[in-house]
Each structure stands twice: as C-alpha cells, then as structure tokens.
Amino acid sequence: MSGPSDFQPTNPALKWIERRLPIMGLMHSSFVAYPTPRNLNYWWTFGAILSMMLGVQILTGVILAMHYTPHADLAFKSVELIVRDVNYGWLLRNIHASGASMFFFAVYIHMFRGLYYGSYKEPREVLWILGVIIYLLMMATGFMGYVLPWGQMSFWGATVITNLFSAVPYFGESIVTLLWGGYAVGNPTLNRFFSLHYLLPFVIAGVVVLHIWALHVAGQNNPAGVEAKTEKDTVPFTPYATIKDAFGVSCFMLFFAWFIFYMPNYLGDAENYIPANPAVTPAHIVPEWYYLPFYAILRSIPNKLAGVIAMFGAIIILAFLPWLDSAKTRSSKYRPLAKQFFWMFVVVCIGLGYLGAQPPEGIYVIVGRILTIAYFAYFLILLPLLSRIEKPRPVPNSIADDVLAKSGGKAASMVSSVIALMVAGGLLLGGAESARAAEGSTKPPAQNWSFAGPVGKFDRGALQRGLKVYKEVCSSCHGLSFVAFRNLAESGGPGYSVAQAQAFASEYKVKDGPNDQGDMFERPGRPADYFPSPFPNEQAARAANGGAFPPDLSLITKARSYGRGFPMFLIDFFTQYQEQGPDYVAALLQGYEDKPPAGVTLPEGSYYNKYFPGHAIKMPKPLNDGQVTFDDGSPATVAQYSKDVTTFLMWAAEPHMEARKALGLQVFVFLILLTVLLYFTKKKVWANAH
Amino acid sequence: MTTASSADHPTRRDFLFVATGAVAAVGAAATVWPLVSQMNPDASTIAAGAPIEVDLTPIAEGQDIKVFWRGKPIYISHRTKKQIDEARKVPVASLPDPQSDEARVKPGHDQWLVVVGICTHLGCIPIAHEGAYDGFFCPCHGSVYDTSGRIRQGPAPSNLAVPPYTFVSDTKIQIG
Ligand code: FES
Question: So what's the ipTM on this one?
Fold first, then answer.
C-alpha cells in the first residue's frame, strides 16, 4: 500500500494474473518489502496478536454457530451440548470464551502503547480514530456474545445494558423496546443479538483493513517517536517484523492456552451456569472485566442520563485525543511529566476497573467519583495543559541514532512494567472476583480434590460412590438433566462398561411417545436417554418443596462459587485453583447445624446451614451417617458421602475435564518448543540488523 | 547488514530455520484436526442412532410401512407370493446390478423385504407399489425398482441398499 510495487512474479500464470489484479504486488509491498522502523519493541507485536485474535474469534465463532441454537428455550442447553457432545466442542467453546478476554487484554495494551508513545499524533489521527471505532465495535460484539449462552448473567447483563438507552430523553423507552423486540429481554432479543454478533466481527475485519491501510500510508510510529528518514532507520517487514511478531504471538498463545486448558472459568461468572430466569436477578450484576472501568464511571454519577453520557463520553473522548494533546514530541520517553501522568492514568483506569466490580456503596462510591474526575481531567485538563507547559527532553536525530544509544537498562524497565501490569491486572480481576463473595456466610474450607491441578483426574471409586449417593438421595428432588446414561461409560468418567451403563439405564422409566395411537408411554431407559428429572416442571417442584425449587445438579459445581479475595485470587491463577464450586457444595452438605446460633431466628420451613448465603436453607439436611451403603468398604459417613457426591457432580458438570487437561499438557509442550525455536530464529534474523 | 544467506554458519542456521518452520507446520496441521472433526456427528447424534426394534405383526400381506432409523426412511414390505415369485423369476445376469432376491432377504423370512428407501441415483425417496415392476418408483428422475428393490430402469446405478437387521423373533426385527 506504499505506491506501485516493483514486485514481478516470474511464473507466467502468476504474471498473467498480476497484470490484471496486482494482488501479489500489494501483499509484497504491504507485508514483505514494507519498511518498518528498526527500533520497535515488543509492545508493537500486539498489532499482530490482535489480528490473530480476530482470526481465532471469527473461526471458532463460525464453528460454534454451526452447533448453537439461538432460541430462549434452547440456547443454554445447546451451549452445554456443544461442550459435552460435539467433538472438541469444549475446546472450541473455551477458545472462544476466553478468547474474548484475551482480545480485550491485547487491545488494552495496544491502546496504552499508542497513548504512551503518542501514536495518535499527526499524521496518524485517522489511524487512531479507526482504532477507537474498532474498539467500540469490539465492545458491542463482546457484549452481545456474552448474552448468547443465555445464563443468568447473560440475561441480566442484556437487561441492564439495553436499559442504558432508556436514559435518552423522550425517546428512551421506544428505543429500548426497539432493541428488545418485545416488552422485555426475550427470545426476539436473543435472536437479533445472535445475528449481530455474527455480523459485527466482519465489520471489525473491514475496519481493521482500513486501520492497516492508514498505518501503511502514515508509516509506523516507534518508541523514539521520530519519523523514519533514511534506509538506515528501517528494516523490511519480512523477515524482521514477521519473525518478531511470530515470537510475540507464540508467547501470547502460551498465556492464552493457560486459560483455555487450565482456567477456562477463571474469567467467567459462576452465575452464568444458571439458566436465564426473568424472575430472579443475581445479587451482583457484574459485567465482564473488560467493561468494568466504564461501569464504574456509570455508577459514579448519581443522575441516570448524566451517568450514561459520562460512560459513553469516556470512550468517545479517546477519538479527540489527537487534538487534546497537541505536544510536538510524540513519545512520552522524552516527556518527563507526561510519562509520570501516563502511569497515574493507568492506575486510575485499573482503580476504576476494581471499583466497577465492588458493590456501589460507601467508600467505593466516593473513590469512584474521584477516579472518574481524574479520568476526564487527564484528557480535558492535563494533556492540553502539559502540551503547553512541559519542556520535553531532546529527541534523537533519527531512529538509527536511537538504536545505537540503546542500553541494557531498557530491558529492565520493560520487565518491571510487565510485572506492574500483571499485578495491576490481577487487582482488577481480583476486584471482579471479590464482588462475587457470598455475603454473610462462612467461607467453605478448601479441600483436597483428586481432580484439582494440571494433571488432576477423577477418582473412579468416588465417582461410582457419588453416583450411588445421587441416585439414592439427591435424585428424589434434584434433576441431572444434562447427563445421559451413555456418559457413564465414556472415558474420563466413572469407568463403567457400555453394558453396565445400559443395565443402569434400564432401571429407569423414561417417558416416550407418542406411539401409533398417539399416546405417551413409559419404557425402560436406554443409554441415549438423559437422567429423568423428579418433577415434570418447576411449578410441580416448588409445590412439592414448600415453595423452593431444588436446582438441577448437572452444573451445580460450576454454578456456585465464592470470593477468594485479593491476593488469593491472584495466587489461584498460578496454582490453578478453581475448585470453589466443589468446595462450596461439599461444605454445604456438611454445614447443617441442629440449632441455629443464639439470636438467629429461622423462617418457617428453613434449616440452619453455616455455608448457605443467608444461612436459612429450605433443603432439610439431606445426608446422615449410614444412609447409603458402599460395596467397597468406604466409610458410611456424611463427610465421605459429601466428598463422593461432589466429585460425581464435578464430573457431571464437566465430563471432559480429563481430556482437557491431557490435551493441555501436549499443547504446552508444543508451544514452549515453538516459542524457544522462534526466539532463536528471531535472534538469528535480527543479528544481521544491528 | 549482511544478506539472509550468511556464510558463517550455514548448516546451523539452516537447521534452525527448517526446524522452526517444521514445528510451526506440525502445529498448524494439528490445529486443523479439531476444527474439522467437530463437523462429524456429535455424541448425542451417534447415541440416537442406536438400533431400533420394529414389530411386524400389524403389517398385512401386500402392505408396507416406513420407519426411520438414523434419519433414513426404511421400507419394510410384507410381500405377496406373487411379488416373491416375480422377483425370483428374473435371470440375475440380466439385471443392471446383479443380485439374487435370496441374497436380499433373510432365509426363512422370504416375505419380508427391508430396504433403505433412498434412491441410489441422487437420494430422493421412491414411492412403494409403483412403477412397471410393482416395486418402487422414484419420481425424481424415473428410476424403477422391482419387488426386491433392485434397479430395473432409469438412471440409478445400483439396487436399494439393505440395512443391517436381524430377526429377534418371527414378528420382530432389530434394525442397526
Ligand atoms: S433421485 Fe431417484 S431417480 Fe434420481
């Protein structure tokens, strides 16, 4: 895209095409011969990382759409079926779900890099504005994608975000109704969100092409912030930038794979494993972590309309950055004041993110207001002021000079900023997490689970015993509707043979029909059948249980969680602790106390449980010593029952967990090898450039 | 700056490039596997394709029924004596897809013809009891099958397929 290319293919067939459509020349001049500043650091590889992420999201998204059903009654189940039944469905879903977070993570680094090095300044204003447009589109796409699994957070996130538009004077209500396609968020909303979620990534891809085009016209900015003048200042894109980007991408994939294979639910919300229920709002509506700073701004303003304006304004203001900061010096490296304020701004953003996840009360509101003011002051007061009063240090004459002047201290500062970023990110996520803490209840003790950790496996004995406990005790009130009898014979499960699973199934009566006479009839279960639910519908279940609805247990170990708080949450990322759900379920089963503590009165028909949020649970103590007899001589105690049934339910919630961890190990060995090789190849290639 | 083919350590350098390229290629190839494999039938579809049992008692002589197995229509015909004789009279060698009627039914159950009701031409569903041979007639492009489900006329290249099935009892078959 830098003028007519001198690229000429030698093959006559290619020549023929090239004369009519010079696409090879375009590719050659854009991605091979294109001169790239030779002093770019690794922050510049995030452009390539983002391109890769867009590709990954489109590819996995198109595939998931082949298996997903955009209908309010079927969406939640279809996502579960993808994860359980589609070949590698769990992998594709994990990639797509954590991929969204990775995409935002990379885009934030990319944006902060642009901010620090002044990449928005003349002549790159349009390039920067296109970037802001991409970011807005990403937010819309990410939001609508989060709605599709139709869990509790999906539904209530959709409700809250669409209601933002009700703040518009006069037309607010009509706009919201228009968005919903109904009187509330419902099936029409889900359908149109699916359609748009599929469309927008391609719009993003289109704007990305413009973004890259603009980049190739203006040329890349660089850490020194001086334009490339001579040949000495640049290196050809291939092999230099290509190999460096490849190495950056490979490092990023290692980070990404950690989430995909080992922490797939780390960034998600347990609430979203509960199917959408228009009658119950979760205690804390927390958006995905990447929206938190803006959510905090929204909540800081006590007026509805002003809050919405501030929230959107916080994003739109970025588009005006090239004119707010009119300093001639681009890179903050040479702007001692701007540099310090940049880092303060980063802290403000992270602080807002943390607050976005906290309950909107007390000190959080006050700090939120201060940080909101700081956020806007940075753009509206500080940057315009700095560009007038700051005395920048002298910039190098050329990029080549900058490369020569480079010292070892650079790497150290880079490492420290990476560490600072990670800690800050952890704080942000920790905030998101702690908002989920079940209030007013004791934290469940962490237990030793055989399935924990990177090589954890289910204990087959525990799974079989747990199945027995479920069948003899839990199944009288709780369904297990996503688990089929055939699953009992699948690898990574309780280890039954196909014949055993069949025999187990045939003990159940399953409703089938209609037959030739048009009647429904009962027949013995088959392996393809799912565990029948004890009640035909929610109303019947409530009527039989004093108004309480015994939840389906298929996903219970993933749908329950409790806050670990900072810094445990950060440590959990490295130790791969993600057994909050099992810990909670096992603790709940053992947490009954015959007499509530003094001063606590329980509502009629409730029981006291130490670990249940609010302590008053409608489920009577389900397990008692000696209730179930095990053939293998395991103790017939409540502790043993709880542990076994929880293990079984963990397997029920994620039947492919062992496959996930096993594949993860292979992928890690491969990626580490590839990254090391790319590192040395990169060193070899660049050895010529210095 | 030297050129890409520096002569200092030609072998080591080449080895590194080749190794990196090879590992990346292996990774790319391995990535394709799950992306393609997901298109195959999922576990619930496979489980739903388990064998089915069909009770033959309600099917009177000369009648036929259609059942579905793995999403395919299966014709079960209770053939008359006349139909069986017609099928067996034809010299096998004269058929486009030579196969004897005996080979297409289960021994001792000659009256029962069980075939997949999908035309071997391009997949339309032939109509039973139609066409010149009192067998099946495909309305799409005019293929005609006889009382044994064998192709006699038209563009279809082969006989109607016989699905795997067994007689559980004299009046019950299991398909699959
Ligand atoms: S599909 Fe039957 S004749 Fe063509």
Answer: 0.86
